[in-house]
Design brief:
- This protein is of the alpha+beta class.
- Strand 15 and strand 16 form a beta hairpin.
- The N and C termini lie far apart (49 Å).
Amino acid sequence: VIGGGFTGLNAALVLAKAGKQVCVFDAEAPGWGASSRNGGLLGPGWAFFDTGITYSPQVARRVVEESFLSLQHVKNVVEQEKIDCDLKVVGYFRGAMTSRIYDNLGRYIERLKRTMPCDAYLVGRSEQHKEVGTDLYHGGIVMPGYAGIHPAKYVQGLATAATRAGARIFGDARVSDLQSKAGGFTFKVRGREIAAHQVLLATNGYSGALHPYLKRRIIPVGSGIIATEPLPAEVMDRLMPQRRMLAGSQRVVTYYRPSPDGTRIIFGGRVLDMSGGEKSLVANAEYIRGLLLKVFPELEKTKLSHYWHGQLGFTFDHLPHVTTIEGMFFSGGYNGTGVARASWLGYKIAQQMLGSDRGKTIYSELKFETRPYFFGKPWFLPLAVWYYGMLDKLDQRDG
């Protein structure tokens, strides 16, 4: 298993419990990428309905059904393996940046309810302070089934569970020279050649250097997160009264939540500079702090305690893909919603490796496309962020 994040560790757990000899190799430490450095939001996946509808209503329904199963899978693993990771179902509120977007959210709920049961509901602007202490939005939508998790604790718990089941996990073990050989595969780790009967590529946003096929299909996108210093309980009660997972409707995504212990605000958004130098880290943190202050201006004098970022894997159809590449198994492309789906598809791809019918998934049936002139470097991202940012500003002007 190449990659020690949610996908690789869930797969390793399944394979080890099935009695297979399993080794997990990660270029850094297990979970070092976006698996431990994300916002910890996971939901039933209503938001993926419109993405799936671009294929067909049947695909859209199956996408949402698997999203529900993804969330339940994480709950089951956490319970069965006794992972202490602050998993709690708290719901999700998405704020509408304009009254027109609020109306669109209402029509979105109606479309969902015509296809399947749906407990999402609208909250008007006059009532939104019961959900979030800001005047930025024009009401919004609540999805009660969403959960929050401490992602770093979860990935550590997965690694412990997989090790307990018999898997061997190696950090600081970058894989290179991956080749197919008669009866299996060979690759190098720290200059040593290793042979394997099966290989799972579970590197998501870090896949580009591993295989040219993935380099043309997985778009690496940076996401940065800040944490405020501890806030007084009365401030948290006012700003996040329901302690929900939260986001705005902007095309340039922002998402936020209370910290698992309820004392801080965790706030994330897209960042373009992933170089990691001190200057870029400070600039990224200041940029995201500016987004935070648009939602909660009263935090102007509040200090930040932490900043971190991870690299996500996006696809051109905005859906994950599960496939085989030259005989190797692959699951990835979670498009920024990978806590539940990467976990679920790690389980699914492991079942495929075992030859089980339980490995069937809609994500194996979708065409995994690339685009002309894309060879791994997302040169179009700055332009896309600028373009969608302008559309967001126009929406607010017209809202």
